[in-house]
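Minutes, project check-in
Item: structure for the 190-residue chain
Input as provided by the requester:
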Amino acid sequence: MTAHDLALEGHGIRLTPAVPDDAADAWALTDAGLWAGMTTPWPDSVEAYAARIAQQQATPGVFAFMVRDAETLGIRGSTTFYEYAPAQGRVEIGTTWYGRAFQGGRTNPATKLLLLRHAFEQWGLNRVALRCDARNTRSAGAIERLGATPEGRLRHHRIAPDGSIGDTLYFSILREEWPAVCAGLERRLG
């Protein structure tokens, strides 16, 4: 698979296809602490981050995005559709991170609204899943605030870059739940 051409915009956020040329601006917003809880090691250089984007571009079923300010086009972070299985009516959203200045505000709910709207209303999917390391309480809380339903804990499901073994928390939103989730996100952003 090559780079996708899907771009989404709304509520002051623009999602553009991630390309290796974005690496310098994106990487400047990251650090090892911010990356804690991801299953992939922190890309410790601009070149490593560019290679990560290139790897995402080459992976079937992955749509990696840069999350940008819609007005300035400055990068705020990154997010991804992955494990896209249209024949099964499902996709996952993840590998999401935001620079520290953009955490806890409107960036995540706006980004997820754009992705979820596309998944349910354009692709016509039945299910969108989200997951995080169980130790990442900040991400788990953010996912629940979106309106996703907790589905359970997969024990010893992931090995962190430091070698520790962690559990994965799974969440989902189903097509019939989407109208209420959408309304909740619109209220948060209104």
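Outcome recorded: The chain has a mean pLDDT of 94.
No further action items on this chain.
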